[in-house]
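User: Hey, my collaborator sent me this sequence without any context and asked if I could get a structure. I don't really work with proteins. Can you help?
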Amino acid sequence: MKKEQPQIMVSVIVRAYMREKFIRQALDSVLAQQTSCPYEIIIGENHSSDKTLQICQEYADKYDNIILLAHKENIGAQRNLDACIKAGTGKYIMACDGDDWWHNMNKIQLQVDFMEAHPECMMCHTDSDIYYEGTGKTVHNINTSKGIVVPEGKVQKEVFSGKVPISWPTSCFRRDAFEKYMPMEDFIKLGMVGEDYPTWVILAAYGELRYLPVSTATYRIGRQSVTQDVDYNRILRRREGDKNVVRKLYEMFPYFGTYHEDTYFDKYYSHQLVIAAYRANDYVSARKFAKEDRMPDWKTRMACTWITFQIARLIKR
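Assistant: No problem. I've predicted the 3D structure and written it out in structure-token form, which is a compact way to encode the shape of the chain:
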């Protein structure tokens, strides 16, 4: 008689594109988890031209709990995520993108235990660390170190208004709730850039979001990515995609009120254009974008002259 296989408790989604320098650290950190929970790792390799696929295949050949989706073309980050989630069977979904890592070996057990004990909770998340690749510096326990009190419970309105700091690689959410309530295809067609924001807003409509004040994951900063871009046109396209997502959320939840153009994303991306110009050492564009910046800070003010622009770049380094 064939032995019945235990239920997979967690599907860990690892998206990988051009991550040959980092993917081993990401996968090793997930494989190092100290847990009694059966879990699987779903790697979505998005047609890299470096050795990322080769490394992912090496891990898939070695470990029985790894499922490798090797896409024949780059299908985009969001379709990659959708494919990975659909390929898994875990009761809960966690994520560790290919340039981040889990430094807490008890992450899976900690969050699964919490979710099992709190059926009213749709998602739990934790504190996190940030690693600055350029300097090698790590800032530990971001929320705690900044004295941030993270709202939790029935916090949909706070999530919608951007008042709940949630780090994607620290999250753990219920598969059944995600599959039932999150219209991924609709959001992908709207040009969704970040899957985390609409996911949290939607899940928060049907239960609680809870926060555990222990750091479990490290988010890497300092490489080319969605949040570290220097392409102005790409940033503007992302702004339009995010605005489309916000419009969709207003439609889904009419009690938020009526959509208006003065949104958080308009302000956020106006500032990101200034930051991108700093990264590109493009004073002319930085000065232009600074005049339109709706979230001004000291970097914006220092973009007014070439000398102060260069001083600001040195300070940031």
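In plain terms: The longest helix spans residues 232-252. You can pass these tokens on to your collaborator as they are.
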